[in-house]
Design the sequence.
């Protein structure tokens, strides 16, 4: 069964974007997230904050997508990941690539 | 080519197109292909109409039959109503004609009656009679001749004649009989038909009401030659043809005048009898065209033609609908075949994927002196995709071995090929460097050089068998579980970034000395990761399941793989265990 994800994107006047990721991200729907990121890049957004407050699950495909996005923007940050997600990020050694906003 | 053959050919074409993408990593792509396939099938089906057009469907035939039947019935009914109406109208017209004729009788009778009165009162004065009657005689008058006959004389003959000598004067016998008969009917004009004479005409007589004496006035008017009416069309009655007979019978010998070309008249006709002096006129009329108007005459035809037209349109529509339904059924059949073909290919792909997966994993683990080794791979519980998990054990000489376990993100051929290249790169570097951190760094440098959309977590453990020592480095991989007598703990270390993620930080190493007989379990996240729970819960579950058991390593690994991984996941799982023999 494909995971359900909803994205809400807010564009700030300073050129940054805030993407709220709601639901679950895994291999079955990671393309939705990728599409949103591609679209922001096309618009010239060079700073992306992912609001992960309501993200309940992310698999390695989702993390790979975020890590790949991190390479293509000037700045990336994760806001309020749940403990589940935070743990996955920590174990994956992606803490330095995907910094958690303080 | 029959429809079925065409469908089969179509199915073959679709699978031919499908095949190259069949191993695609992305479920999204798979879905898109299925969509294309559908539209392809739909196109093929709609392009084929030949075999269907030959025979009308039952619905169409029914519509056609009912429509034509209804049209015929309506047209027939309309025709019947028209006929009845025409008959009624003709009857009315005949009566009208009768009224007109009846009204004309006094204009014939009155001059004669007045002349008879004058003759009686003047004793048959010829001069007065002539003066009175002259205006009624001649081309513009009612009569060609009018004569005065004294009654009661021995030899019946006119004493005064205005106009030519009457025809009756040369027929003494008929004159005798006529005047005798007429004397019985005073105050009423008597009529005689002189039809079989040289100059056919009608004779009219009026006598004063003194029986057997006095005077009778007799007038004649000619009939047209051959009885043909000279006035073919009369403005008031030009929609009628007629034949007029003297008397009550329609005998040809009694025909006075007609404009019919053929007698007796055929077809629709009406007969009217009107009193004419002491006799009768029998009128037979037939319609000259349609009395009710041409629209009502054409109405049955209009109905018939419109009905046939509407029926044909309905039949066409019905046929189109029936055809559409047939095509939909064929399409459904085609889709059914495509679906079963897809199911078959899906199963085939799953088989191929698993075969490939196992081909990419080592056939057997090498023998390392002083160690037991065991490993299991469990494919994802659903889907055809190949996972990206792998493991390797590389002898490193001097009683040492390198254990590698990795997990490439994603599924499918792309993950499998990424896994294969990562694995082979790792094997190559293992021959060169043995420090786990250095190995991971080289691997990372190598695989981060090219841009891609996946990463691999890799755990690298250098095992020094004799020294009972482990050196561990992790590229974002879950920590291994160490089982020693009386305790079980995860060897947590600061993980570096996954392979393929360019990161500033390098890889750290953790060195652990273990007790004799210790067991190390390395695994991929499929064994511990569950949706909706924090990773530590899964790790704890594994620890609880693995600790405290005295069973063979082989059974332990198989048991964990079965209990924690089999069929529960959308992710594949690899698990590898090593145990010191002493």
Sequence:
């Amino acid at each position: 069964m494909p995971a359900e994800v909803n994205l809400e994107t807010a564009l700030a006047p300073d050129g940054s974007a805030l993407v709220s990721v709601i639901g679950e991200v895994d291999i079955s729907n990671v393309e939705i997230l990728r599409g949103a990121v591609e679209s922001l890049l096309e618009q010239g957004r060079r700073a992306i904050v992912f609001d992960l407050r309501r993200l309940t699950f992310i698999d390695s495909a989702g993390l790979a997508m975020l890590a790949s996005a991190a390479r293509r923007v000037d700045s990336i940050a994760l806001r309020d990941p749940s403990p589940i997600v935070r743990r996955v990020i920590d174990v994956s050694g992606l803490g330095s690539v995907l910094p958690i906003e303080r | 080519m029959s429809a079925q053959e065409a469908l089969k050919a179509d199915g073959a074409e679709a699978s031919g197109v499908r095949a190259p993408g069949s191993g695609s990593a992305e479920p999204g792509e798979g879905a898109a292909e299925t969509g294309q396939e559908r539209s392809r099938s739909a196109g093929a089906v709609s392009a084929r109409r030949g075999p269907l057009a030959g025979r009308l469907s039952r619905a169409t035939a029914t519509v056609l039959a009912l429509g034509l039947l209804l049209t015929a019935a309506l047209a027939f009914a309309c025709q019947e109503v028209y006929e009845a109406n025409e008959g009624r109208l003709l009857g009315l017209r005949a009566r009208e004609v009768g009224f007109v004729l009846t009204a004309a009788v006094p204009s014939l009778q009155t001059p004669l009656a007045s002349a008879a009165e004058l003759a009686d009162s003047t004793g048959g004065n010829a001069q007065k009679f002539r003066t009175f009657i002259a205006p009624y005689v001649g081309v513009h008058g009612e009569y060609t001749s009018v004569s005065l006959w004294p009654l009661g004389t021995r030899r019946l003959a006119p004493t005064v004649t205005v106009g030519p000598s009457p025809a009756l004067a040369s027929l003494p016998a008929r004159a005798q009989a006529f005047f005798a008969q007429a004397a019985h009917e005073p105050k009423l004009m008597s009529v005689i038909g002189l039809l079989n004479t040289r100059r056919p005409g009608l004779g009219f007589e009026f006598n004063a009401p003194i029986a057997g004496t006095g005077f009778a006035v007799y007038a004649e008017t000619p009939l047209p030659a051959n009885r043909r009416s000279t006035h073919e069309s009369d403005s008031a009655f030009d929609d009628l043809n007629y034949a007029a007979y003297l008397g009550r019978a329609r005998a040809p010998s009694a025909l006075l005048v007609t404009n019919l070309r053929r007698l007796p008249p055929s077809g629709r006709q009406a007969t009217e009898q009107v009193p004419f002096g002491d006799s009768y006129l029998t009128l037979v009329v037939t319609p000259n065209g349609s009395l009710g108007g041409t629209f009502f005459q054409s109405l049955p035809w209009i109905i018939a033609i419109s009905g046939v037209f509407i029926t044909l349109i309905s039949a066409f529509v019905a046929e189109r609908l029936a055809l559409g339904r047939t095509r939909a059924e064929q399409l459904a059949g085609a889709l059914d075949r495509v679906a079963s073909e897809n199911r078959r290919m899906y199963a085939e792909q799953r088989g191929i994927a698993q075969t490939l997966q196992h081909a990419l994993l080592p056939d057997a683990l090498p023998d390392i002196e002083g160690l037991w080794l065991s490993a299991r791979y469990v494919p994802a519980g659903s889907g055809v995709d190949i996972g990206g998990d792998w493991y390797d054990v590389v002898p490193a000489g001097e009683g040492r071995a390198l254990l590698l376990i990795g997990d490439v993100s994603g599924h499918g051929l792309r993950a499998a090929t990424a896994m294969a290249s990562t694995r082979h790169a790792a094997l190559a570097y293992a021959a060169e460097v043995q420090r786990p951190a250095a190995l991971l760094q080289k691997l990372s440098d190598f695989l981060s050089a090219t841009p891609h959309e996946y990463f691999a977590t890799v755990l690298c453990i250098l095992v020094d068998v004799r020294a009972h020592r482990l050196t561990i480095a992790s590229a974002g991989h879950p920590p291994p579980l160490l089982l020693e007598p009386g305790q079980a703990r995860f060897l947590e270390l600061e993980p570096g970034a996954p392979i393929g993620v360019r990161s500033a930080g390098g890889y750290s190493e953790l060195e652990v000395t273990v007790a004799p007989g210790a067991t190390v379990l390395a695994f991929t996240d499929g064994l511990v990761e569950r949706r909706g729970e924090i990773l530590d819960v899964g790790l704890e579950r594994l620890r609880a399941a693995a600790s405290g058991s005295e069973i063979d390593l082989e059974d332990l690994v198989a048991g964990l793989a079965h209990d924690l991984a089999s069929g529960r996941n959308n992710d594949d799982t690899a698990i590898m265990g090593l145990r010191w023999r002493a």
